[in-house]
Prior knowledge:
The structure holds two protein chains of two kinds. Chain A is α/β, with parallel strands linked by helices. Chain A is built from nine helices and 18 strands. The longest helix of chain A has 15 residues, at 289-303. The two termini of chain A are 39 Å apart. Chain B has one domain (2-207): HUPs (Rossmann fold, 3-Layer(aba) Sandwich). Helix content of chain B is 27%, strand content 31%. In chain B, the strands form two sheets. In chain B, strands 9-8-7-10-6-1-4-5-11 form a nine-stranded mixed beta sheet, sandwiched between helices. In chain B, strand 4, helix 2 (69-78) and strand 5 (82-87) form a beta-alpha-beta unit. The longest helix of chain B has 15 residues, at 37-51. The N and C termini of chain B lie far apart (52 Å). Chains A and B meet through helix 3, helix 4, strand 7, strand 9 and strand 10 of A and helix 3, helix 4, strand 7, strand 8 and strand 9 of B.
Amino acid sequence: xxxxxxxxxxxxxxxxxxxxxxxxxxxxxxxxxxxxxxxxxxxxxxxxxxxxxxxxxxxxxxxxxxxxxxxxxxxxxxxxxxxxxxxxxxxxxxxxxxxxxxxxxxxxxxxxxxxxxxxxxxxxxxxxxxxxxxxxxxxxxxxxxxxxxxxxxxxxxxxxxxxxxxxxxxxxxxxxxxxxxxxxxxxxxxxxxxxxxxxxxxxxxxxxxxxxxxxxxxxxxxxxxxxxxxxxxxxxxxxxxxxxxxxxxxxxxxxxxxxxxxxxxxxxxxxxxxxxxxxxxxxxxxxxxxxxxxxxxxxxxxxxxxx
Amino acid sequence: xxxxxxxxxxxxxxxxxxxxxxxxxxxxxxxxxxxxxxxxxxxxxxxxxxxxxxxxxxxxxxxxxxxxxxxxxxxxxxxxxxxxxxxxxxxxxxxxxxxxxxxxxxxxxxxxxxxxxxxxxxxxxxxxxxxxxxxxxxxxxxxxxxxxxxxxxxxxxxxxxxxxxxxxxxxxxxxxxxxxxxxxxxxxxxxxxxxxxxxxxxxxxxxxxxxxxxxxxxxxxxxxxxxxxxxxxxxxxxxxxxxxxxxxxxxx
Lengths: 307, 252
């Protein structure tokens, strides 16, 4: 079996997710990594352990162009895979239908060459499927796999083909921040709607900054405008699996819990001792977040705790 | 402009589901069912386009058992004009669903197909993208804003890095995210009126699509259970726990 893996890029640079999905893909066979973007990203991709070859192609930003690019290479591979990111979700089903393949997506465990586990019902059930098709189209949840090492120097080859798209890119509205990537962060501090305002949410951000953590938010907090949409954690937002998740003022709706089930440890700060999050958290502090957060941040600053 | 909206009947998103003890699947008998939330956003988007004068016909299609009539009626009550139910009693894979919808798109020739970005039962997030491939149309997934400009659409999408805006010519496929709009609750007169709108029921086998599944579901199991931990009493204690956790973390 040979694997063609689509590298995950963020604003032209290699995303930390790529090393994680590369580790997943390498379980299925030798991996050729397609980097559709700047050549610096291709060079960086060549250092990922388990990559046999990097294929560098021009930047294809939109789904139809990227699906065509992958389809052009697919004939040489038994597995075509990507991260279950918004890019992978956009492109891979389109590619699969072009190739007349039923894809298996959001894979969280590989149980054999064609046996995969994927969550359904917001992670409240796990489905194990066997895929007996000749060729497989797969996406992996980056947070479910440990990253591959970066001690490789795979050859980089250029695949010179024009990528055209019927759709046209107009503008990106990026959330500017220097905080770690939410999907792959080891520590995440999450805030809910009970912070009361965008200013209240800044208390959550301050704790995150102190710890060197990524910031997450519930759907309600995003809908209320306290946090940008790409911070949303849950069934329809990002799925995270940090070593430590600190949930601040989050009651724990089913759809939010879906996004944090992979967290190794959950700490909840909440006024309500009966909140659903309290029933699943490892450590709970009951109290008012407006009282607790400034003290906690100051105490951690004093201790010099930072990842 | 003519809009086709695909909707799915699923276990209501507020229901806490239960995995059958024999591992054969999730219990759906005697469980409250409703229209998939994202599909509601898609219907609402279509109705708003019609209200703005940009669309003159909304056709809503669902694939599933007879009871899927209910979600078509919901869409008709929200303002869609007519419905099509492709009746199927067996579970169908997303590729089959997309092929069936492609047949309907071929018959109806809509300028725009709207779907929810994912169904909250299987969480696949496939069908819109597959339909776009099968009908060779451009796609805009995870839409949080749709603007129409003559023969083209300008769609803002929610993506991992924030949002992005793309333009695509019609005919096109758009999948709805939750922040696209707030779906209306149809008033009782609209619910009554919905029952008199045309609703065609066709057996799914009549469309000439191979319905055979490609994947074998081996089992469905519950996730590992999390149990309540310890409640602590002070900020200082919590800071100490966080400090030792971070200290013990391996560097990645």
